[in-house]
Amino acid sequence: MSTPWLPLTQSQQITDLAQASHEQPVLIFKHSTTCSISAAAKSKIERQWADSGLNVPIYYLDLLRFRPLSAQIAEAFGIRHESPQLLLIKDGECSYDASHMGIRLADISAKVAQ
């Protein structure tokens, strides 16, 4: 199964996914399309997705095309912007974030299960 990326392209989606996270955790992956580290992190997520056991929405933010959304995410969830970055939104808050090669789906799976 390939990664079920959901494009994050509009400000309203951030509000909507924060609300939805009260029912089910949501992931946001912030990706710079010109960064080799970001490309490696994205590829790692895609390779590990099927075996991760995760069954949650995962949003994909193209930072170069939608940079203002990254600032909005940082403000809405009280986190520092990094790229690449994987955020777990649960009950309207960022309960976990990882960046660069620290991104591990096994860590996210453990947090989702809590």
Automatic annotation (TrEMBL):
<dbReference type="Pfam" id="PF11009">
    <property type="entry name" value="BrxC"/>
</dbReference>
<protein>
    <submittedName>
        <fullName>General stress protein</fullName>
    </submittedName>
</protein>
<dbReference type="InterPro" id="IPR022551">
    <property type="entry name" value="BrxC"/>
</dbReference>
<dbReference type="InterPro" id="IPR036249">
    <property type="entry name" value="Thioredoxin-like_sf"/>
</dbReference>
